[in-house]
Amino acid sequence: MVEGDLERAEERAEAGESKIVDLEEELRQIGENLKALEVAEEKAQQREEEYKKQIKSLMDRLKSAEARAEYGEKTVQKLNLRVDSIITDLVAEKMKTQNVNDELDQTFELFVAH
Questions:
Q1: Residue 103 has pLDDT above 90, yes or no
Q2: Cα 57 to Cα 29: distance, rounded to the nearest angstrom
Q3: What is the mean pLDDT of residues 11-22?
Q4: What is the pTM of this model?
Q5: What SS3 state is found at 1?
Q6: Strand, helix or coil at 78?
Q7: How many CA atoms does the CB half-sphere of 1 hold within 13 Å?
């Protein structure tokens, strides 16, 4: 009976050792997976920081472009008002010139008639 107990104890010890080896291998794989995940996380954090920088840069460029567009629109409005004013002045000057021409024509007709 002692030999049977010894054999069973040895079998259990071998099974335990085999289980320990299996668990050590599983632990090693888990450790490798954890390292790979840590590396992937670090890379993801770096990409996230790069994306944040890109977003900030793009937002700054957008704000600048919007400000330039607004300034451009205001400038166009001012120039359109100025063009309208110049056109109005031009029409008024043409009318004055036409009036002067009409007066000159009348004056010449008076001289020719006499």
A1: yes
A2: 42
A3: 90
A4: 0.57
A5: coil
A6: helix
A7: 0
Q: For residues 21 and 26, what is the distance between their CA atoms, to the nearest angstrom? A: 9
Taking 90 as the threshold, does the pLDDT of residue 57 lie above it?
yes
* Straight-line distance from the first to the last Cα atom of the chain, in angstroms, rounded to the nearest whole number: 164
In this structure, which amino acid lies at residue 27? Answer: L
| Residue whose entry in the numeric block shows the structure tokens 């006499």 | 114
As given in the structure block, the two tokens for residue 14 are 């071998």
DSSP-derived letter for residue 114 is: -
Q: Give the pLDDT confidence score for residue 46 in this predicted structure.
A: 98
In the numeric block, the tokens 């957008």 are attached to 62
Token pair of 45, please? 């954090």
Which H or E element spans position 66?
Answer: helix 2-113
Residue with tokens 């994306």: 51
Tokens at 78, concatenated: 């001012």
Average pLDDT value over all residues in the chain: 94
| C-alpha 25: how far from chain center | 48
